[in-house]
Structures are given as structure tokens and as C-alpha cells.
Write a structure and sequence with these properties.
This protein has ten helices and 13 strands. The chain is α/β, with parallel strands linked by helices. It folds into two domains: 239 residues, P-loop containing nucleotide triphosphate hydrolases (Rossmann fold); 99 residues. Helix 3 runs parallel beside helix 5.
Length: 359
């Protein structure tokens, strides 16, 4: 590993430990936190003053912390629900990690380097129109001019206040919650926890496995206590949900197989370029019988645009990755490359609330 990359990894690890533990030395950055919160507040006020509405309802999915919290599976689940309930949904996103600028139609440029990996994943999984752009309002306007959509879902658009919204959803990682509770750079938050009081619904990602086995998933007692503490007083309705693996998909052919197909592999390499790669590795470990197979783990930065040369050091022929990473490897994947398809299993009570709000 190059020295610069190693140093960056060590620094990132240190910061994350402080974000999700005691802030420690990061308290020295408290003046910068105050500056960040002040600038963010002014930006929010300015954007709300110039807020623009669309001719169709808008659902915003986002979070108040940096890093992966499971927003993309939620967006895909919302799109599928809308498609099955008489809506024609479209999705707008910023397209993080892309090398281009301006508004792009994902259907016309199916290249993650141009549109971003998560928008490409959403389009590939749902076939809904997806447009990306720095300005979500302008991207949504372009989408509506090109497609007869009657609902817009804004992916990771919570802090983009320029676009008026009818329903706001915050996705929270149940394992991490809000870390040390501080905003950047002392903590992982983009906005204070008090923001939860002004949204319409809170989705708690990562319910324990037993919670979704029968009936509606419920918030675990530990997480419920956390969300009922004084700082959450008056917050929005809270729903717990699971992100569950549903199939093993061949990247080259698109064929879907039962997850048990993993047991047939003699060796494999796990590849992840996501916000929390350890989550994917733990998922893979859980899907494999104990002691039956050891696999190598290969981490890349979030939103990394893969090239064939990235895999030169992978000795195993069988490679398993996330769907977000797979959409960036379709041009050079072999017949032994796979991804694990996952679905967000959202409770019916949540969908009922959304449906009522949109009527």
C-alpha cells in the first residue's frame, strides 16, 4: 500500500473512532464545528427563501450524518412501492463520485463515472427515470420535461433546501445512531439531532434479525430507549426495517440464483467500495456456513470508479461484491463475478403514512 494511502486510512480510522466514541482530541476543533453550523444555517435560510416547488409531489430521502446509512435500498423500495400503487415515479440525485457536471439522464449515459454509482444502481434495479444534477430542482424539472412522472423522489436531498418537498424521510443507522452527537468536524453530523423534529418519518436501519420474522418489524428496546430520550422529544414517527439479502446475481449474465449458490464456491474474494465495507463483509460471513470458506477482503474508497486493473492483485477467480459496485464492473466482469442483491423491507405502516401524505 502506498504511504499516502496508508496515512489517509489511518487518519480516517482515527476520526471515525472519535466520531462514534468520545470525541477526545477532536474537541479541539469545536470552533470549526461552530463555524460549520453557522454556515450551514445561513445556507439553509438562503435556500428556503429561494425555494422552488414542482408540479408534482416530492419525497426526500436523506440523513443527518455522513457516510452510508442505507438510503439507496430505501429509495429503491419507495420507487417499487410507487410503481405498484399507481404512481409514475422519477428519481433525482446529485450523483456523488461522478466525474461530470451538470444535468445527466442516467438512461442515456449508463456510466458510473458520468452519473454516479448509486443513481446507476437505482436505474438498473427499478427502470425508473433517474436524472442527476448539482441543483436537484433543475434536475427534477429536466426529468419532468422528459418523462410523464407524477412523483419525484430526491435521493440524499435532505440538505438541498432549494427543492420544496412534501414528505421528508431521515434514514438512521441503528448501530451508530448519531455518534458523539456533534456536527462536523468534531462529530459525523451534517445537521443537529434536533432536525429529527421537523421531518415526517424516521427509518431506523439495521433491526435485529428476529424483528422482521413475523409481523411488522419493531424498534428494538435498546434503540427505542435511545430514540425516546429527551433530545428526541417531539420527533417524527419512527419505523424499524431490515436490509435483507435476496439473491446472488451474476454480473456478466444478469442471472439470479439462490444465496445458497455461495456454498458452491471453493474460494472467493469480497470487494467493497461503499461507506461501511465491514457491513458487507459481515453479511457475507453470515451467509456462509461457519468454517466452510475463508475469503479475502478488498476495500476501496466509497464511490470508487473501478477499472479492470483494480483487480490485478485479486488471486481468486470468484469475486463477490455489492450491487452498487457491480454496476461499475459490467464492462469487464467475467462469468465468475457476482453481486448480492439486497432489499429494504419497509413496514406497511410506513407506506400507509406516505400514501396518506401524498393524497
Amino acid at each position: 500500500m502506498p504511504q499516502a494511502t496508508h496515512n489517509s486510512s489511518v487518519l480516517q480510522s482515527f476520526v471515525e473512532r472519535r466520531w462514534y466514541g468520545r470525541a477526545g482530541l477532536l474537541y479541539l476543533l469545536s470552533p470549526l464545528e461552530l463555524l460549520f453550523r453557522g454556515v450551514a444555517r445561513l445556507r439553509k435560510v438562503r435556500q428556503i427563501q429561494n425555494q422552488a416547488s414542482l408540479s408534482v409531489p416530492v419525497i426526500v430521502v436523506g440523513n443527518i450524518s455522513v457516510g452510508g446509512t442505507g438510503k439507496t435500498p430505501v429509495v429503491k423500495a419507495l420507487v417499487r412501492w410507487a410503481q405498484q400503487n399507481g404512481y409514475q415515479p422519477g428519481v433525482v440525485s446529485r450523483g456523488y463520485g461522478r466525474e461530470s457536471t451538470g444535468i445527466k439522464n442516467v438512461a442515456l449515459q449508463q456510466d458510473a463515472a458520468q452519473v454516479g454509482d448509486e443513481p446507476l444502481e437505482i436505474y438498473a434495479s427499478t427502470a425508473a427515470p433517474v436524472f442527476v444534477g448539482e441543483n436537484r430542482y433543475e434536475a427534477a424539472q429536466a426529468l419532468l420535461q422528459a418523462h410523464p412522472c407524477n412523483l419525484i423522489i430526491s435521493d440524499d436531498g435532505l440538505q438541498h433546501y432549494r427543492l420544496a418537498r412534501d414528505f421528508e424521510i431521515i434514514v438512521v443507522d441503528a448501530g451508530r445512531l448519531f455518534g458523539n452527537g456533534h456536527c462536523l468536524p468534531v462529530g459525523p453530523l451534517r445537521e443537529p439531532v434536533s432536525r429529527l423534529r421537523s421531518v415526517d418519518a424516521i427509518l431506523l436501519a439495521g433491526a435485529e434479525s428476529g424483528e422482521a420474522c413475523g409481523g411488522e418489524p419493531q424498534i428494538s428496546s435498546a434503540k427505542s430507549i435511545a430514540l425516546e430520550s429527551p433530545e428526541f422529544a417531539g420527533s417524527a414517527p419512527q419505523y424499524s426495517y431490515r436490509v435483507a439479502p435476496v439473491a446472488l446475481v451474476n454480473i456478466k449474465s444478469g442471472e439470479r440464483f439462490p444465496l445458497q449458490q455461495l456454498h458452491q464456491f471453493e474460494e472467493l474474494a469480497a470487494v467493497a467500495a461503499i461507506g461501511q465495507p465491514t457491513k458487507f463483509f459481515k453479511l457475507l460471513e453470515a451467509l456462509l456456513p461457519k468454517g466452510c470458506l475463508n475469503f479475502s477482503k478488498h476495500e476501496f474508497p466509497d464511490h470508487h470508479n473501478f477499472s479492470k486493473s483494480d483487480f490485478d492483485g485479486v488471486t481468486q477467480k470468484t469475486i463477490v461484491m455489492t450491487e452498487k459496485d457491480a454496476v461499475k464492473c459490467t464492462g469487464f466482469a467475467t462469468a465468475q463475478w457476482w453481486y448480492i442483491a439486497i432489499d429494504a423491507q419497509l413496514p406497511q405502516a410506513f407506506f400507509s403514512q406516505v400514501h396518506t401524505a401524498l393524497r
